[in-house]
């Protein structure tokens, strides 16, 4: 049975849709035509590849297409691993420039699923390579339009005005009853409709394009943790290495990745010396904190004194279905010797929040937008400022 409690299998005009929720707020989907037994996958997170393969093999669905709606900046895509596991064809927009993508989608082209066709619509703005999939009364909107929110448009070539045009010309051109399947949701909501978003999404109540651009430009969230490393992974399709050298770790931390280091030593060791901004997860607490590990952006670097405990934890978490794990060669000893900054003799403090892919709220005057949690590190804009 699906290992995704609370996430039911939906049926939309005869197609099955399996939402794959992730603690980081990411949302991927398996879309299945039960007549032909053909399936496609949309925006599957690397952590969910095992789950997706499990679902596909459980009912003997044949995966034909693996689609990234855009270049993900906040999490590792599972597209390369899932396509390899199921011998499927990877799809991205022609401007995406992802290694290993065999099908470069054009605007107003289609992907077949049994006797059906899903239409690919170019919808730039969040990123220059964003697209949405439309068919069977549903739209898979990537990050462009979220439930009560929209994508941020302040990084990797995003443009608020272009996002406004895509939302209004592509997404709001769909019938009100169209079911919306977004690429993120930070409040564990399953779906919405175009009509519900048209009526209540605070970003869609703003008075025109200029107001949207001003609001979206006004309050950009912090960059997602590990953004540059994730962009490289997602564009180059390279697997996350199982080990980071001390020197690589120093560069990773200096690039803003301290919040993805999971320190598994004892409290006494951590208070003796720790990497500022790293997370403390004691060895005997790991089993009960897997959700927290999953909510940490990959690559997730496991740290101990010299590397041995971290490797044991990596093996344990891998068996528990966590992906994107690396150990730090030589632990904190080698890290300090390589010039990495450590704090000595001070209590560990919680990691600072990192940015998400959602925008802030527009001046909605109290509309019901739900902001993503500050530590989500996702793609939705923060909620718009209230007037
Ligand atoms: Fe995104």
Structure explained in plain terms:
The chain has 387 residues and is an alpha/beta fold. It folds into two domains: 10-218, Metallo-beta-lactamase, Chain A (4-Layer Sandwich); 227-344, Rhodanese-like domain (Oxidized Rhodanese, domain 1), CATH 3.40.250. The chain is 26% helix and 22% strand. It contains eleven helices and 22 strands. It has helices at 49-58, 79-86, 160-171, 194-200, 209-218, 227-236, 246-257, 267-272, 290-294, 308-319, 331-337, and strands at residues 10-12, 15-21, 27-33, 38-42, 62-67, 89-93, 103-105, 109-113, 116-122, 131-135, 138-140, 145-146, 149-150, 179-181, 192-193, 243-244, 261-263, 273-274, 279-280, 300-303, 325-328, 343-344. It has a seven-stranded mixed β-sheet with strand order 1-2-3-4-5-6-7, covered by helices on one side. Strands 8-9-10-11-14-15 form a six-stranded mixed β-sheet. A five-stranded parallel β-sheet has the order 16-21-20-17-19. Helix 1 runs parallel beside helix 2. The radius of gyration is 21 Å and the shape is globular. The model is unreliable at 1-6 and 363-377 (pLDDT under 50). The structure holds fe (ii) ion (FE2). Residues 70, 72-73, 126, 143, 357, 379 line the site of fe (ii) ion. Fe (ii) ion is lined by residues 70, 72-73, 126, 143, 357, 379.
Distance N terminus to C terminus?
47 Å
Q: How many separate helices?
A: 11
The geometry reads as: globular
Q: What portion of residues belong to β-strands?
A: 15-25%
- How many distinct folded domains? 2
Task: Give the oligomeric state.
Answer: single chain
Spans of at least 5 consecutive residues whose pLDDT stays below 50 are 1-6, 363-377
CATH topology of the largest domain: Metallo-beta-lactamase, Chain A
Radius of gyration equals: 21 Å
Number of strands: 22
Name the CATH superfamily assignment of the largest domain. Answer: Ribonuclease Z/Hydroxyacylglutathione hydrolase-like
Cofactors, ions, other ligands: fe (ii) ion
Helices and strands: which structural class? alpha/beta
Mean pLDDT across all residues, rounded? Answer: 87
């Amino acid at each position: 049975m699906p290992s995704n409690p609370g996430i039911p299998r939906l049926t939309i005009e005869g197609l099955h849709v399996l939402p794959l929720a992730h603690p980081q707020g990411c949302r991927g989907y398996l879309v299945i035509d039960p007549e032909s037994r053909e399936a496609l996958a949309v925006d599957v997170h690397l952590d969910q590849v095992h789950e997706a393969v499990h679902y596909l093999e459980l009912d003997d669905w044949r995966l034909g297409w693996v689609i990234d709606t855009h270049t993900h900046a906040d999490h590792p895509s599972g597209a390369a691993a899932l396509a390899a596991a199921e011998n499927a064809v990877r799809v991205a927009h022609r401007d995406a420039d992802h290694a290993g993508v065999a099908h470069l989608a054009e605007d107003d082209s289609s992907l077949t699923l049994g006797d059906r066709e899903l239409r690919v619509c170019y919808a730039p703005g969040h990123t220059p390579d964003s697209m949405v999939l439309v068919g069977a009364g549903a739209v898979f909107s990537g990050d462009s339009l979220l439930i009560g929110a929209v994508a941020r448009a302040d990084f990797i070539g995003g443009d608020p005005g272009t996002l406004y045009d895509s939302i209004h010309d592509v997404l709001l051109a769909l019938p009100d009853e169209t079911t919306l399947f977004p690429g993120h949701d930070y409040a564990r909501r399953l779906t919405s409709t175009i009509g519900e978003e048209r009526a209540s999404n605070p970003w869609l109540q703003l008075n025109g394009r200029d107001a949207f651009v001003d609001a979206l430009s006004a309050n950009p969230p912090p960059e997602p943790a590990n953004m540059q490393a994730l962009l490289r992974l997602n564009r180059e399709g390279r697997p996350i290495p199982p080990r980071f050298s001390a020197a690589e770790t120093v560069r990773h931390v200096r690039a803003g990745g301290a919040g993805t280091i999971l320190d598994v030593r004892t409290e006494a060791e951590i208070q003796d010396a720790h990497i500022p901004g790293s997370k403390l997860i004691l060895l005997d607490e790991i089993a009960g904190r897997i959700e927290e590990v999953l909510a940490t952006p990959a690559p997730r670097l496991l740290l101990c004194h010299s590397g041995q405990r971290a490797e044991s934890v990596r093996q344990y978490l891998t068996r528990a279905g966590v992906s994107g794990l690396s150990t730090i060669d030589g632990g904190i000893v080698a890290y300090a010797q390589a010039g990495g900054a450590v704090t000595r003799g001070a209590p560990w403090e919680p990691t600072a929040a990192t940015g998400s892919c959602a925008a802030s709220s527009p001046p909605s005057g109290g509309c019901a937008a739900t902001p993503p949690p500050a530590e989500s590190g996702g793609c939705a804009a923060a909620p718009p400022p209230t007037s």
